[in-house]
Design brief:
This protein is an alpha/beta fold. It has helices spanning 3-11, 26-39, 46-49, 60-68, 94-98, 120-128, 142-152, 159-169, 173-184, 195-201, 210-218, 222-234, 241-259, 266-273, 277-289, 292-309, 319-331; strands spanning 18-23, 50-54, 77-82, 104-111, 130-133, 156-157, 192-193.
Amino acid sequence: MDYKAIIRDIENKKFERIYFLHGEEGYFIDEITKSLIENVLEEHERDFNQVIMYGKDSEVLNIVSELKGFPLMSQYKLVVIKEAQDLKDFDKLESYFEQPADQTVFVINYKYKTYDTRKKIAKAAAKNGILFKSEKVKDYQVAEWISSYVKSKQYDITSKGTIMLAEFLGNDLSRITNELNKLYLLIEKGTTINDIHIEENIGISKDYNPFELTNAIAVRDVPKAFTIVNYFEHNPKAGDLLMIIPTVFNFFTKLMRIHFLQNGSKDSVAQALGIHPFVASQYLNAAKVYNPKKIAANIAILHEFDLKAKGIGNASFSHGELMREMIFRILH
């Protein structure tokens, strides 16, 4: 069951006794929890029937006591344990999971790590409620996720816009949605978000960002690449070396895959790499510029500078100086 289906049921007032939400992606866990807090109880019921506790500050006996308490002038009692991964003796909740109270909605936020689903607690949660694993969106899926999210809010977004956000913000969904939500306050519903909106309101330059640097590398546009590097050197927040390296690495690993695909058509490449067909065309052109031998050499260069950026084998050079040398070697 995906998080949208869970939230849909919650909004339709179809509640489970247990919501065991675990996994590395905090965004989906937060969204489900937010929906439960908004829908299980009416506002006037929350003072007496809503309990929010934190794992590191709680004890199992106190939690169970709250879980077994009866609601006051309400059909349900809502108990939320945030940061449950920090709760000592978590497994001692097993007996409650086996026989949860009918009047209580129990929400467990076990964030940033995956619980061992072979354990009895996990099996009991799945039997008597919902066991939801919140997984990170893969890097190649982020642009598509952004597009889908934007459309769910009754907006649209250009391909370049989604790629700019994905390249600059990575797969941090909470950060992506926070930035987009601020943008929604400034533009009307139905608007197609483009690179200008993003530059003016989110602070990602449409000309000086990791996406544009990768584009310059793709066509071996040396002057443009170094103009962008110079901008990054004077504006580190726009493109720090430790943010640039994974972006360029992903670019070259995709290029290497293209060289070994049996079908080199635009649509086949788009499907194989999980990218937009427009982007696939750019990759196909770049594959003509970089042969497999040069790609392998560039990946080795990126690995070398990743270590240097982290202080290994580098005692004095700044990130800006390292970036300049790295890009020079990649392009020549």
